[in-house]
Amino acid sequence: MTKYIFVTGGVTSSLGKGIISASLAKLLQARGYRVTIQKFDPYINIDPGTLNPYEHGECYVTEDGAETDLDLGHYERFLNTPTSQANNITTGRIYQNVINKERQGDYLGKTVQVVPHITDEIKRNMRILGDSGNYDIVITELGGTVGDIESLPFIEAVRQFKWEEGSSNAIVIHLTLIPFLAAAGELKTKPTQHSVKALLEYGIQPDILVCRTEHHISPDIRKKIALFCNVNINAVIESIDASSIYSVPLLMMKEQLDKTVLSKLKLPAKHEPDMESWKDFLGRLKNPTAEVKIGLVGKYVELPDAYKSISEAFIHAGAKNECKVRVEYIPSESIYPENVKEKLGHLQGVLVAPGFGSRGIEGKIEAIKYVREHEIPFFGICLGMQCAVIEYGRNVLGLKDANTTEINDTAEHQVINMMEEQKNITTKGGTMRLGAYPCDIKKGTKAYSAYGKQHITERHRHRYEFNNKYLAQYEEAGMIASGINPDSKLVEIVELKNHPFFVGGQFHPELKSTVANPHPLFVKFVAAAMEHAKKKTI
Ligand code: GLN
User: Fold this and answer.
1) Confidence band (pLDDT; 50, 70, 90) for 538?
2) DSSP string, 68-79
3) Whole-structure pTM value
4) What is the SS3 assignment for 365-377?
5) Which position among 58, 238, 366, 510 bears the catalytic label?
6) Active-site hit among 382, 391, 406, 462
7) Residue whose CB lies within 8 A of the most ligand 1 atoms, among 67, 422, 461, 467, for a mutation test
8) Closest ligand 1 atom to 465 CA
9) Is position 382 annotated as part of the catalytic site?
10) Sign of the C-alpha dihedral, residues 259, 262, 263, 268?
11) Nearest 5 degrees, angle CA 400-CA 404-CA 405?
């Protein structure tokens, strides 16, 4: 029988519910439990696929092609197990399901209401992963902050769920903040008391409080929180600011969050969490023997969350190479022929990021020209790969107006164009080429030396592709297709033969990089940057 843990947030947003959920899941997994995490988001978009990255950070794509919240990336990076559409549900999806059912006549004769129809649909979705039989424990993170109008139906659904399942089968962890008032020199518990009161008003007594804090919480303060919030003293968990999100599982282990959870769920502790390989990763992360500076050229760089999976993939690949990777975020719009040397000349590697639309695209192309000519390691992802193809077309093949149809649909040389099956699609949500597709790697290429195998799969999120009409011309001129989709023959990876490291992928490798499995292309790219650094110092 599956047990359920709900994680709610109080006092303020951005406390890191995703990291706490992932850390707890990691510890339970390391004790031998089969665990998954799902996120319920209270906004009305069906999924975050149509959101501008500035709104909500990166859109994370799962194996089955769901466009989801970036917290799912944390779940996968921590647990090293894939998530799916069922792991991310929004208010929009709940309402869509209910309205579809209403139209089909499923509620014939009834008035369809928030309670019970919306709350029932929420509970049904909360149970889907548990009902699959694949998990002992399902952790459900509720987006938003308790007290928000939007999250009310979710909170009510949790209350009912807990009542239906019983207190040892469904528990609530409330993540809250204990602010430090510098003027008073004190940690303050009142906001936490108020936020627990808000939960109580909705009929939910939290079982465990995880308290975010900048300073250690004294036993007296723990006692005070326990007393006024009506929880056991060992259910007051300190979550102190950490230098890395990857330290949080160990901090939670020290606080015995996993043990407390298991005892509340009446599950055996089995054995101490086996965190050896995690500690090994942290050891390498915290004791690098080299350092490289890599530029991330993109159009959303003011908000690093827009590139969350890329920056995490650099952390994994850096640890693997025992190298500190300093990522310098460079707005692509700021790059011109006159300043490109000043912008990029000091870097040991440049990654050109994914993106949509024309803003900043010429800066990306300029950056690629510079790193190609100066033999600085280059890694292009999705739009970054497409820009590399455009740059090579314009400056090496002499196709002067080479472009992507996305930017110029009247260009003579549309070296990147829309796939046939995309041409008749007019709606936006969930209609791109999404999710995992197979790719065959050519032996003897840089891609092969990274992956070490011929058949791989990678996740996609795009509408445009390499135009195969130009493939022979490109290959003759030195840009080869080292990865091809075996079914559609679409070009998935391009690379240059005569360059230390110049690789572009039509897919998003960053989405598959985890602590246990750093992505091979990122690992090779960082290694190439380290080589470049050595060359410079000789
Ligand atoms: N805009 C490009 C496309 O749709 C690239 C998308 C991306 O970088 N994810 O093909």
Assistant:
1) low
2) E-THHHHHHHHH
3) 0.96
4) HHHHHHHHHCCCC
5) 510
6) 382
7) 461
8) 10
9) yes
10) negative
11) 115
